[in-house]
Amino acid sequence: MNDSLKLVNEWAIKNMVQINPSKSQKLNINLPPITINNEILNYTDNLKILGLIIDSSLAWDGQISKLCGEIYGTLSMLRQTQSLIHLNLKMHLIKSLIVPKFMYCSEIYMGCSRSNWHKLNKTPTYIFEKLHLPRIPRNRLLNLPPSKCSKQHMNGFFVRGPRLWNSLPVGLRMLDSMSAFKQSCLTYFASQKTQN
After folding, report:
1. C-alpha distances in angstroms, 145 versus 101, 119, 132?
2. What's 21's DSSP letter?
3. Beta-carbon neighbour count of residue 113 at 10 Å?
4. C-alpha to C-alpha distance for 157 and 136, rounded to whole angstroms
5. What is the superkingdom listed in this entry's lineage (predicted)?
6. What is the reported pLDDT for 126?
7. Rg (CA), the chain
8. Is the N or C terminus of the chain more exposed, i.e. has fewer CB atoms within 10 Å?
9. Taking each helix axis from N to C terminus, what angle separates 87-97 and 61-79, rounded to the nearest 10 degrees?
């Protein structure tokens, strides 16, 4: 890791970009000390990168709490204008102000814990229905959202995610342990890759 960071630092110096070690952090995931410019990076239990809060256990507690706070804050502001705007405009505002908050990096943290999923499920149902993300028994196949013609839509998480889930063997989907599920998925996808 330090060798790679040394190369990054050399590139930065060559291109007149300065890396600030005091603003750099290392997520506490049992790695040896990491240095930039001979300065040891601080350990942290969570860090924020491009608005995504990552914690060392990948439980996504901070991200889900932030997401719920942002959504309820936006809903609170919209409630103040509910008698002044038409229903179509309300739905447009929800689609433009709230749905993107759910969608940003959702591919990463949708495997969160039950308690975090419960927090997300407290979101008003009219918003959740727009997302096609109902928590369902793992043995069921997911329904694909209505298809659109654009390549971007067809390659998006909400189309590719259900397709990928539906392609998993039932036994793999039914595993109780998250760690066993992750390991089995890695093995399954590695075997699929070697077959292709």
Report:
1. 19, 23, 7
2. G
3. 14
4. 17
5. Eukaryota
6. 60
7. 21
8. C
9. 160
Contact 46, 40 (CB under 8 A): no
Helix (H/G/I), strand (E/B), else coil: 22? helix
Phi/psi for 174 (5° steps) reads -90, 0
Phi, psi of 112 (to 5 degrees): -70, 175
CA 191 to each of CA 164, 184, 186, 194: distance values in angstroms, whole numbers, following the listed order: 15, 10, 9, 5
At 133 the pLDDT is 44
Q: pTM of the entire structure?
A: 0.49
The string of pLDDT tens digits covering residues 3-31 is 777 888 888 888 888 887 777 776 766 66
Residue entry with tokens 């069921």: 140
